Amino acid sequence: MEPTQMTPRRPYLLRAFYDWLLDNQLTPHLVVDVSVPGISVPMEFARDGQIILNIAPHAVGNLELGNDDIRFNARFGGIPRHVHVPMAAVLAIYARENGAGTMFEPEPEYLESAFAYQDTDEADSDKSETGIHLVSDEEPEVSDNGPGDDEPPQPPRGRPALRVVK
Question: How many structural domains are present in the chain?
Fold first, then answer.
């Protein structure tokens, strides 16, 4: 079988390194390229076009390391989020404690799929001008930024009281 007909090796290496890091009691972190189409990560934590995600079992829920993407639930700044990372966006996996891990080389299948997704995305953007927005079940706080509205809440008055119970 020719190398061009083979499936990409990135998901297999990623799962192998993930298991190896966990077996050695290390904390696996992913380096993800946030500019890849189809990615769903908290962009407010991205720096220089990348985000580092802790994918240790105690940090994420429902982790799925699939052949096409990585999916999990996690809290960012106390807010629960669902994270979706296409395999093309994964740049590296490493241990937080000592940096052991690997960077992934570009693979032709991921380059082709990113271009194909980008082409369909550009065609769809001509039809609709709506962008990505955060969907939440909480109502946003309304503020009119008038004078006196920015006052912090008053702390409780009086001396704190603790009672020793034996």
Answer: 1
What is the pTM assigned to this prediction?
0.66
The pairing of beta strand 28-33 with beta strand 90-95: antiparallel
Each residue's pLDDT tens digit, 49-97: 999 999 999 999 999 999 999 999 999 999 999 999 999 999 999 999 9
Task: Say if strands 69-76 and 79-86 run parallel, antiparallel, or are unpaired.
Answer: antiparallel
Q: In this structure, what token pair is assigned to residue 136?
A: 């939440």
**Contact assessment for residue 41 and residue 34, using Cβ atoms and an 8 Å cutoff:** yes
**Residue 64: CB partners within 8 Å, gap ≥ 6?**
70, 71, 72
CATH of the domain at 51: 2.30.30.220
**Of 6, 8, 3, whose CA–CA distance to 86 is shortest?**
8
Contact 113, 68 (CB under 8 A): no
